[in-house]
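Dear colleague,

Following up on yesterday's call, I've attached the two folding results inline so they're easy to grep. Please treat them as preliminary; we haven't cross-checked anything against experimental data yet. The first protein's sequence and structure tokens come first.
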Amino acid sequence: EAIASGSADAAPLVVVTATTREAEDLETALGLFLPSERIAVFPSWETLPHERLSPRSDTVGRRLAVLRRLAHPDPGDAAYGPLSVVVAPVRALLQPLTKGLGDLVPVALRAGDERPLEEVVDALAAAAYTRTDLVERRGEFAVRGGILDVFPPTEEHPVRIEFWGDTVEEVRWFKVADQRSLEVADHGLWAPPCRELLLTDQVRARARALADQLPGVSEMLSKVAEGIAVEGMESLAPALVDGMESVLDALPEGAVVLVVDPERVRRRAHDLVATSEEFLEASWANAAAGNHVPVDLQSLLGSASYWSMAEVRAHAEATGRAWWTLTPFVADTDLVIEDDDVDERIAVRTTDPEAFRGDTERTVEHLRERVRDGWAVAVVTEGPGLAKRVAEVLRENEVAVQALDTSRDDTLTGGTVHVTTAPLGRGFVHEAGRIEVLTETDLTGQPGSGTSTKDMRRMPSRRRNQVDPLQLRPGDHVVHEQHGVGRFVEMMQRTVAGATREYLVIEYAPSKRGQPGDRLFVPTDQLDQVTKYVGGEEPTLNKMGGSDWSKTKSRAKRYVKQIAADLIRLYSARQATKGHAFAPDSPWQRELEEAFAYVETPDQLVSIDEVKADMEKQVPMDRLICGDVGYGKTEIAVRAAFKAIQDGKQVAVLVPTTLLVSQHLQTFSERYAQFPVKVRALSRFQSDKEAREVLDGRSE
């Protein structure tokens, strides 16, 4: 209740999810109920603890910002004040932290502050910021006279601080592309350190002493001892600092840990620990072949890179942290009497709502019955367009409906459908409370709204790629089809021959040295000739009418032709090769696909149909399926493999790690459980006898 009321005195709630994506989705959904500035994600490193790679500066900045707000919140500034909810993926929970990270003081400045510029520069250097001539990346700063440019890792834009003597005159955002100042930064400068391992005198002394004990990383330790920041030095932190601690130790008194979907979290934690150990073994194998030695401190410290979930849970109990789990499964009291890990069980008694999958008539009838029975119903969509359409349809069918303003203390009332907008994933039904929440996913069967990649394919390629002038800001680089790379200046109206039109103004390199740049006026009906520059480096402006752009295009065409010729030879050989044309889908194939527990996305359905169409041709298939984690790639493989099995073929699924072998074995076995299909694993986890049986089974 204290958290829901937004009380600054309430101890934070730490919510643990299985993945980073789930953590970010939950943060967005919680913004419907709490002020967004009181919710934060505590991200995990994107690198393994033993790798010779440093985490990104923006990841480190976000982590240190959360730890600082937990340890020393600023009650006078909501952006850096106390937190009500911290959402952390389990990977961030398992990795130990350097003690005292929350006590690291960020470099903070506001207009009117009195502080010598030299002192600020020294503080930034001590916080692992890199001094450069021009600020272009996070973690950099530059000094030009009385102007200090800093790019904090937690911000979208860098800030420019203007000093008058020792007084901060003004703090503004500025743009990296053209270095032009933007609006005033109301919060001033708030720059947390860019690394979790700072090169203090104590750290450098320990690095010098350890150089002989860890010969494999002696080069790294020698550089650290000299005060030189090296890539991957964070992996040495357990041996160089006073001690490590859990994220739980950084929480204030009274904080509560809530594990969402503990079954998935435990499995994810187990997989993380196993993957880390497996990659460490692989790194040692690579080292034996002459590559870099991994940063393995287990022999020195006697502890692994990640804690296990059991160790984290035991640590929470030892330090008096309340530990709650939220599971979708109902506990059977007859089976859990002897379970000593749970002190109390509370049944929320909510269920998933009915999936309407775009059936408007069924949706309206369902909502009419709910209203007639006095239920409080909320329909939540991501965009206002669908919310407005839902309200119109309900009014047309004489169903009581009203808008719900989530920015006020509006409450749900019985006998009415409340319509609002919010990024909420799935809804719920609470029978006892007679409350139902339906989301866009429940209504349409598709998560969120907007244009899918399937819809994008219907658009002409020029229309897809043309520049959007509303998204351009002065100084952005664009590419004109005829004139090359230029700099966007502005949108303006001009009257030519009595007709007034809008033009996109693009500036190019001057045709004569010492003169201002040439300008090109592109009518808005010719924007298909202009695209936004997407290169990774700062481009050089071309000259209008010059030969440099023509030479660049000629070189690109020559390389494209060379690549095309190689591809033509490759695919000619492929087309000449005869493969096996698989039969159309059998009844068993349709039965397998209908048993899929989830609703396929439009792109997933297109990929499945295209894969099966390729398999039914005599030409060997050449297709790459790309997608993020959890987007359904494995299900496509399950269906393709089953289609091959129906034709009497044997299927081998190759995966990069032994951990994925066990995961895919479980997935394939569960999906094929109702069919006479044998699924076996072959990895180093199998004994020699089991491996021989699998290999012998290929001839059966």
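Below is the second protein, in the same order (sequence, then structure):
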Amino acid sequence: MKPLYSKIRIGFCFIILVMIFTLFITRLLFLQVVRGEELRKIAEHQYKELIELPAARGEIYDCRGNKVAINVTFPSLFAYPLTADDADSAYYYLARVLGKTQAEVRREFKLEPKRFRWIKRKLAPEQMARYDEKMRQKGVFIREEPTRCYPFGEVGRSILGFVDIDNVGRSGIEMEMNDRLVGTPGRSMIQKDGKGTVYRIKEIPVKEAEAGTSIVLTIDWDKQQIVERELAAAVEQFKAKGGMAVFVDIRDGSIVAAADYFPVEGGNQALKPMKLETVAGVFEPGSVFKLITAAAALSEHAVSPEDRYFAENGTWIMGRHRMRDDHGLGWATFREAFEKSSNIIMGKIANEISADKVLAMAKRFGFGRKTRCGLNCESKGVLPSPGHWSEYTTAAFAIGHGVSVTALQMAQAFAVIGSGGYLNQPHLIEGFLDADGKVTERHVNQPARVLDENTVATLAEFMRGVVMRGTAKNLLPLPFAIAGKTGTAQKPNFATGGYYDNKYMGSFGGYFPADSPLVAGIVVLDEPEPIHYGGYTAGPTFKNIAMKFAALDRYNLPPMPDSTGEDDSGDPEEADSAVVRVLLADLSGRTREGAEYELSRLGLKVEFSGSGGRVLSTQPAALARVPEGSTVRCIMSRDAKMEFPAPDLTGLTMREAVRILNRYGLTFTSEGAGRIVMQTPEAGTLMTTTGTMNLIFSRDIGRDSLAQGTGTDSTGILAHRR
């Protein structure tokens, strides 16, 4: 019996063992197969955590390749305690870093286990110096965060806008293009050991952060600085409430510079709203709007330039309404009425052709709708839509009353005349940079003809007459021709429904050089004092900007045929051919990438000579008209043995000359003050980057000496001296 009992006992034990093993295998399969994914996640949660890695924003460039918005990093302090004990210890370390008591830190920050908590963004250097790496063990960490830096300071800030503490755009281009600039955040892993102690953070990226797309603007930051400086000087000089100015490239509508200046109490301009008033603000244009009335009349062939009208000796009575001219005219031609800005004659012409024709022309010029320049803060302005046009409402509309426009819309209108009758869409964004630094998604210009050539030619002569004989003749003398129109508009009184008797908007709009238009724009001053006429306030400001643009770009204009009696067009067969020619930009000082981008924009090929990083000169020379598709040779700067012609600096100020000399890598000595009247070596003399120029300045430099220094002929057209 005993052997049988032993067998039973052994069998029973075996069965028990098999059952235990089966249960173990079953449990193992259950944990590995059925609950495997769930338990894996629980385990991962116990030994690692994920935190977000911010992405760098795309950078912003101007049209010359200058970086105007870049990224820098700053240290920020955050807490991530794993346990309640870690949280208690973290308070001690936070107090040390922040320079506070533990009681203050506990009241200000409520730390919870496994909860992310920002403590201080942008730590001060002295606070960062008190941070110790061992603080990480108790959940106190430093994160390097990207933020925006603007190398040119406040210049162009109304265009660029700003970002908040989280690097999100809140105004300007930073806000409008935030989706393209912001990039994609990455993720990083915090690893912990079996006791929950953090031993690694940030070194294991689960997903790399992807930087945002960089943007290329049409703004030229050198010109932007000129416009902002001149506008601020005009506002201060004429004690105006503020001012606006915007300039566009006539050839394609690209916005070259746009600025506003409204002094704030205390003088801190950084406190002003980040909104570009040249596109967001509206005003009644006054007499500059007569350009539209004249365009409508000429397009309808209702009047000719020499048609004569009676200006009522300065006062025109229309029922209970009156319209006045500042200068009481008797009989005057249409041309004279435009040049001398007669409200009465322009009002009569508008009634002759009908207000509906003037309104239709205003719409063709783009008034009453947004230009879609790239900023959503843009206003569309307001065009009148009365149920019935009376004689007075028609006349008032003809002289820019009862209509509101933006400065950009007016600049666009003047550009139509300069471009030969074509309306180009103003735009701020030229394109985007890809990973290889190439510009993609370029703006495609689609010009629309607004006026015929005969109308444009007549209006261009009218606008030149304004400067030569009319309300802007005080701008003379000029080194090159400017075409424009003055405006002096009473400000509307919205409380009474009428107009203020002593508050005006002074403006001057136009384009230059008048014989070969490149840039159009407008300057507007809000309540200039003591004189309020646009020709005497905004006009000189426009002139100063135009002259500085010319000095910067070294305008090279051919002499007028009637002044020399010679035809400078070159080979007659070539002139008669269908070759498309483009104006070669001045590439001096640009990087290789910047030069390549500008030439590709003009439809030209590029060949580099030399190993330098910046362009010294080009062949053909800057501002020559070259066939589209041809190759331009860029002479680069670094090779000290390479010879190049000395630049022409006569007529420039010290600051303007230094900018050019820096591009060439030249040193200089100077004598006197004012503008340059003599230079050694002379312009065109071959020299190297090891050379030195001697500059002689004088404050006693008038029109004749400036003309001699810049090669100005008797017609007043600036011709760059070779």
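For the second protein, one point worth flagging: The two ends are 130 Å apart (CA to CA).

Best wishes,
A.L.
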